[in-house]
Amino acid sequence: MKWMExxxxxxxxxxxxxCARLDMLGINQVMIEQGRDSIEEFLRNxxxxxxxxxxxxxxxSEEPCVKAYIADVADNRATVKAIEESFDELKxxxxxxxxxxxxxxxxxxDDEDWENNWKIYYKPxxxxxxxxxxxxxxQAKDTGRTVLSLDPGMAFGTGSHHTTRMCxxxxxxxxxxxxDMIDLGCGSxxxxxxxxxxxxxQALAVDIDPIAEKIAYENAAMNDIYNDRYTVLIGDxxxxxxxxxxxxxxxxxxxxxxxxxxxxxxxxxxxxRIIKPEGVYIMSGIIGDRLDxxxxxxxxxxxxxxxxREGDDWRxxxxxxxx
Length: 323
Known about the structure:
single chain, 323 residues, 4-stranded antiparallel beta sheet, 28% strand, globular
């Protein structure tokens, strides 16, 4: 299958707004490229696909970018047009932060390109004191760390982004042997699989994108984790009442959500129904400017904040029910 890769150039501050804008258009699985060197290398390695005259013009201000992938079928041509119109509108709005150029580049790509071009950036990565994230196609030296083998495929979550790394650090700090864990917005399954490798007994992973189900199960099996301990469900937690009821059948020791601030704020209204009184709520994907909104939502819904971590302009929060 052919795919349309839609790239939106923005700023560190603007990443959350761009992701939220794409989410409004029904596009919630994205990749983020940060740093001039990373973007230039990606453009060079995929140069035959790009329609641009001057690479320097694209990356002159070292803008990070958000990449979304849409199946190249007739119905989705209107989606690309809607994206272009939506970001033209956003350019004219005063949102109080610098969103950068919001330039958009669209290229046609194959499954193989989408799945493999980014692998050149993804290497074994030590996280916290105990974890080593190992891409399935890479060799890694035995350092005594717990190895999490991973192939993100077409789902978000490699461990290299600040948001995922900070969540894993919180999990390493909090997961206990025998815990039940739920991962809201699981993507590749990295957080829920990581929790199981750190000692959790059971994990439930949820994502809105059907692609995530196949990839998360495959990544779990790569780490010798199977359906007796790991379940992946697909659906929109915010609107699917049947899914909400399924999730609320039990309470969890650890609840994780690495999404975007706007979704976390809405999820926080439901989390009290699924977290144990002594449980821990871990969340990230929060741009710095929206941290106060997330903290306010936590307070309103009966949580106390245990710790806030920073990675560039991203924030991760660990909280628990008030006692």
